[in-house]
DNA sequence: CGGCTCGGAGTATAAACAAC
DNA sequence: TTGTTTATACTCCGAGCCGC
């Protein structure tokens, strides 16, 4: 929490709270929740009306309560069929058990009180990684022996030897269609002065000086959505089921993927200065790019999985705003535990990888539609503004891949440390099994994602630019029907959460 | 005094586990 | 199958703090 500045509150433990006769509401509004105060069922609620906060009075999405599912370390599940995991010498560290008491007190260098926030809960009590193929050794040391962290960074300084380079700091926020923040990258703190958790479940516009800027873009996004679905009268309004939990259960790199058919909008957003922060955080003016995310399977061209649609918002400090000195420190804190080998640090300079030229973020995506496909994660990263893309298997991409992994240790894919067929560069090839097409369950075919034919759209040229709010050309490459789940444990968790019946049947 | 923050009591919910 | 235990998240009471 906010550093409870002064003294420990002298609370009297003997004080017995009397039972209140008033029943609690099922869901307190955002403001009342934050204030720990009583709410009511009306929206805006009575308290918000009385304090003039009706505009920000809305229901927040609850997380799942209750005891988390137990996940045995080596689930003998036909979904996964772990190969030869009984040989611990061959596979030294497939999972890292961590009792709650031994969980590191800091994650990514942040105070435990911040990063262990319940709001960021990740389910798995164990760390299980495994290759999806038989001959894919796990890069165990590359993985953090720590609980999955909700933290992620989109900008990362790359230390190669003594040099340190990085592009402009970029904040990424994954939003629901209603523009509620699902997940924000760690740059939030640096750029806006808010902890990522501060944004969770909040409407983004709440942090803006002029919310109408954002609403304008939202309208354009929705207009483009309607444009897509207009051909299909069955689909009326966007009804996304995507929640913050989806954002937390999916790799940021995956979430960054643009939905097939999405346009990208650029605008400038002025953020309110964060209250209660030490003085440096003045309101920032940010260049924002917004597009529909396809990382959860939504496709605006084939109109599939539209309920998995969400919005990606990337933010960099506006160049035209007052020059902002780049911080010298590496952004955030080491994402790689210090005791781990410097594999991820040996990649060449990533200067300008995240640079933000006039390039279109909406171009190029992995063109994979099969169920089990090698996906180059860099390709999904290539949806980032300014990402330089060459051939999917190029050295450059592989380097980017590595960078991605360095940035997202938790989501680090299982990788082949020894056998990289094409290059000596650290090659990370993700063999992802499309989760929804469960190969072993012939009977229970999970819903609607098998998606065999890619969208027949042409590829659009990549050279178009933005005006203040300008629609980019629709992204035309066929998108993956589903995405990379680099971590089987993660995948299992996701499967079980998403399709309890099916997975139970399989078991 | 009113508003704000926040510790924590009481409660709801869900999974694991035990008993039948 | 049902009841109990355990683990987590939720609401909101009530106390301290602060500015007016
Ligand atoms: Zn309320
Ligand atoms: Zn309210």
Quick overview:
This protein has 507 residues and is α+β, with helices and mostly antiparallel strands. It is built from twelve helices and eleven strands.
- Fraction in helix: 10-25%
Calculate the mean pLDDT score and round it: 50
Gross CATH architecture of the domain at 170-317: 2-Layer Sandwich
Number of helices: 12
CATH superfamily of the domain at 170-317: PAS domain
Shape: globular
Largest sheet: 5 strands, antiparallel
What top-tier CATH class of the domain at 170-317 fits best? Alpha Beta
- CATH T-level topology of the domain at 170-317: Beta-Lactamase
How many beta-strand elements? Answer: 11
Distance between the termini: 41 Å
Task: Using the CA coordinates, give the radius of gyration.
Answer: 23 Å
Note poorly predicted spans: 1-14, 74-150, 156-166, 276-281, 321-490
Bound chemical compounds: zinc ion
Helices and strands, in order, run as: HHEHEEEEEHHHHHEEEEHHEHH
Commentary on this structure:
With 507 residues, the protein is of the alpha+beta class. It has helices spanning 30-35, 46-50, 112-115, 187-192, 196-199, 211-229, 244-249, 252-255, 377-381, 395-407, 488-498, 500-506, and strands spanning 95-97, 126-128, 158-160, 163-165, 170-175, 181-184, 264-270, 285-293, 310-317, 372-375, 430-433. Among the domains are: 29-58; 170-317, 2-Layer Sandwich (Beta-Lactamase), CATH 3.30.450.20. Helix 11 (488-498) packs across helix 12 (500-506). The longest helix has 19 residues, at 211-229. The radius of gyration is 23 Å and the shape is globular. 45% of the residues are buried. Bound molecules: zinc ion (2 copies). It binds a DNA duplex (20 and 20 nucleotides) through residues 1-2, 4, 6-7, 9-13, 15-20, 22, 24-28, 32-39, 51, 62-70, 118-119, 121, 276.
């Amino acid at each position: 929490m906010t550093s409870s500045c002064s003294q420990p509150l002298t609370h009297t433990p003997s004080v017995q709270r009397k039972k209140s006769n008033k029943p609690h509401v099922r869901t307190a509004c955002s403001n009342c929740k934050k204030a720990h105060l009583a709410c009511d069922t009306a929206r805006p609620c009575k308290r918000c009306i009385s304090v003039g906060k009706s505009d920000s009075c809305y229901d927040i999405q609850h997380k799942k309560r209750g005891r988390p599912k137990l996940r045995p370390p080596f689930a003998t599940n036909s979904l996964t069929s772990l190969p030869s995991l009984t040989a611990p010498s061959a596979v030294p560290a497939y999972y890292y058990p961590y009792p709650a008491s031994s969980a590191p007190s800091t994650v990514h260098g942040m105070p435990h009180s911040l990063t262990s926030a319940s709001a960021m809960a990740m389910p798995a009590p164990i760390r299980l990684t495994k290759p999806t193929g038989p001959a894919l050794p796990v890069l165990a040391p590359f993985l953090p022996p720590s609980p999955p962290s909700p933290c992620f960074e989109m900008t990362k300084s790359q230390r190669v030897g003594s040099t340190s380079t990085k592009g402009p700091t970029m904040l990424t926020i994954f939003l629901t269609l209603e523009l509620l923040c699902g997940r924000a990258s760690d740059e939030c703190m640096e750029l806006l002065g808010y902890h990522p958790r501060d944004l969770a479940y909040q409407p983004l516009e709440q942090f803006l000086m002029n919310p109408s800027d954002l609403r304008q873009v939202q309208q354009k996004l929705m207009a483009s959505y309607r444009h897509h679905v207009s051909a299909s009268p069955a689909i009326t309004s966007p009804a996304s089921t995507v929640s913050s939990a989806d954002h937390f259960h999916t790799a940021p790199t995956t979430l960054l993927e643009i939905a097939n058919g999405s346009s990208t909008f650029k605008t400038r957003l002025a953020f309110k200065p964060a209250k209660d922060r030490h003085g440096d955080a003045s309101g920032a003016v940010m260049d924002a790019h917004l597009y529909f995310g396809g990382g959860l399977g939504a496709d605006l061209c084939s109109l599939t999985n539209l309920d998995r649609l969400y919005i990606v918002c990337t933010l960099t400090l506006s160049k035209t705003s007052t020059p902002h000195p780049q911080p010298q420190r590496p952004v955030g804190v080491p994402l790689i535990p210090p005791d781990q080998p410097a594999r991820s640090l040996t990649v060449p300079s990533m200067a300008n990888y995240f640079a933000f030229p006039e390039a279109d973020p909406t171009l190029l995506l992995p063109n994979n539609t099969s169920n089990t496909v090698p996906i180059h994660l860099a390709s999904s990263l290539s949806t980032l503004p300014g990402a330089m893309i060459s051939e999917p298997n190029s050295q450059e991409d592989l380097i980017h891949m590595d960078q991605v992994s360095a940035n997202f240790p938790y989501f680090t894919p299982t990788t082949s440390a020894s056998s990289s067929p094409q290059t000596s560069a650290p090659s990370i090839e993700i063999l992802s099994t499309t989760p929804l097409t469960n190969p072993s369950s012939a009977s229970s075919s999970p819903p609607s994602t098998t998606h065999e034919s890619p969208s027949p759209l042409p590829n659009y040229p990549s050279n178009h630019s933005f005006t203040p709010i300008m629609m980019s050309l629709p992204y035309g490459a066929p998108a993956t029907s589903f995405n990379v789940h680099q971590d089987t444990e993660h995948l299992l968790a996701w499967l079980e959460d998403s399709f309890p019946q099916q997975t139970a049947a399989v078991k």
